[in-house]
Amino acid sequence: MGGDGRPDTAGISWRVASSCATTAGSAFGRWNVAALGAAADAGNPGRGERCGRQRFYDQGMGHPADGDSAAADFLSFAEVAVDTTAERLPGIDRSAMQMVLLLHRVASSIVYDLESTVHRPAGWSWSAFRLLFTLWVAGPHESRQVAHLSGMSRAAVSSLTKTLSASGLLARRSDERDRRAVILSLTERGADALETTFRAHNEREARWASLITEDELATLNGVLTKLARAAQGQEWISRRS
Length: 241
Hints:
10 helices; 63% helix; globular
């Protein structure tokens, strides 16, 4: 037990969290500390404070500041979401839901971390990095192709092109075969900036990868590659045109 009355982080159990949440009677009430405390207290004086303080931490995640558990709960919410959905909608594919939810949440966390620690300090956004990296890998391309390769909309690429061109990182020229088309390419300054920043980017990627073993990383990369390749041949999947 900590000095402020909260239990130590190590060994916090999801069973306690679930018990408090069940008492509150609402899946989303699990994230409302005040409601949890009040609901639990109504049925068991003394239990309310304990439930009200429970923040659904994963082991080792630590305690965020009082009144601000959003950062810690962003990833751990996935487990509660799958359990709650299965209870309310019997027959759903739990494994499929968990795969998509975890992929989205982990990817979002990684992107936010990379953008805030590497790319914003470098002077550009995550979207700008995607555009610059695409051109660095693929070379000069027509803007519509760049949009496709980077997974962004044409409008987003057009807007970023103006900003990055003004910064001297990207060059534009008309396509000799079609004057209506625009060919995008990195300037020497843009290539140098991308390469310098990517070294810091990759160091951060390595820190994320170090959270699992080398064998687990190889397995994860293999499975994700298999999923990506399998999806390419599926006509039912909606894709950005």
